[in-house]
Prior knowledge:
Layout: H1 12-23, E1 27-38, E2 45-51, E3 56-62, H2 63-69, E4 78-88, E5 93-103, H3 106-122, E6 140-145, H4 150-162, E7 167-172, H5 180-192, E8 198-203, H6 217-225, E9 230-234, H7 242-246, E10 249-251, H8 254-261, H9 265-298, H10 301-304, H11 311-393, H12 395-400, E11 405-408, E12 425-430, E13 433-438
Parallel strand pairs: 3-5, 6-7, 6-8, 8-9, 9-10
Antiparallel strand pairs: 1-2, 1-4, 2-3, 4-5, 11-12, 12-13
Helix pairs in contact: 4-8, 5-6
Amino acid sequence: xxxxxxxxxxxxxxxxxxxxxxxxxxxxxxxxxxxxxxxxxxxxxxxxxxxxxxxxxxxxxxxxxxxxxxxxxxxxxxxxxxxxxxxxxxxxxxxxxxxxxxxxxxxxxxxxxxxxxxxxxxxxxxxxxxxxxxxxxxxxxxxxxxxxxxxxxxxxxxxxxxxxxxxxxxxxxxxxxxxxxxxxxxxxxxxxxxxxxxxxxxxxxxxxxxxxxxxxxxxxxxxxxxxxxxxxxxxxxxxxxxxxxxxxxxxxxxxxxxxxxxxxxxxxxxxxxxxxxxxxxxxxxxxxxxxxxxxxxxxxxxxxxxxxxxxxxxxxxxxxxxxxxxxxxxxxxxxxxxxxxxxxxxxxxxxxxxxxxxxxxxxxxxxxxxxxxxxxxxxxxxxxxxxxxxxxxxxxxxxxxxxxxxxxxxxxxxxxxxxxxxxxxxxxxxxxxxxxxxxxxxxxxxxxxxxxxxxx
Length: 456
């Protein structure tokens, strides 16, 4: 049979080939929910189906593209895919050949949260060893939540019922919207300035998108680095946020968070009753032991007769007193005789030493006197000769013989006519005073004076 009949009909293969060529030329982006998934080891591709409320579309994606996309598909995930239609001619089945895929809506948000959780876990923020211990009986409790939500009333009502001793400090902040993480962090930091025992971070239930402020990375670091232990109660039982993961204690709801830090009144009363019973038993034992010791002491003879306490000591004192009265007079007499003997010996020895010392001093004094006199004679002679020599050389002696000394007024001695000029004021020193003069003129003398060095 030929592929084309006389009437112009085409074969099945030709028809599918035409359809395949037409479909593969169409590239579109599709948004849909994954309803079926087949991803088995050894497959070359991932097979899944996307649907909306009226239609479904079988899809396939080669494994290398799927791995590069970094998306983990699950049934129910909302995805956005791009690709082209393809026709498998052997079976006459149409597929959508997926080029790229990404999670959309909540699915994309969950992927981001999961990636952040893995990052923070790798940094150690979720390690139990770094989480702080919540004190069993907190006195001051911080509360970060919306002041208008139901969560704040649930917490306050629970604390009032179970643990009315707690003093609550409320930081009212928005817990929904894009700015909510910033306000929540500000509330935690404000409460951290107070000396609190614990901080509760709570909000009521909501959709995954509503709880996204508690999946903020910056908020996670603030919670992890808080010096005050933080307990979270966010959403309902199945909800787990990043804040829950890094908090020091996670509770399923706001009410459960309040219960986790507050003992019930009944538990407190039972505990106090146990303490009272233990204290009573302990005191009874101590009183019984003390009574037994008192009875034992009372039975001692010394407490029956107080004088028996000091009988031995009193007898010892009397014995020592008698011995001392016998020994002391003889001892004093011997010491008196020995003292008299020592005094006489000392006086005799001292007198001899003093006499000998006096004679020695007199002899030394005479020797010093003679030696000093003989030593001064040469000096006296030299002084007299020097004094006579000074007298001969004294300028006053020259003046007394009728000579004079001429000096420039308030200056040096005039030694030559060059030292003065006409009009100069000079002083002439004579034997009995000074004559003030004025130089009228100078005249060089023909006589010269030769000076010689003379050895004296």
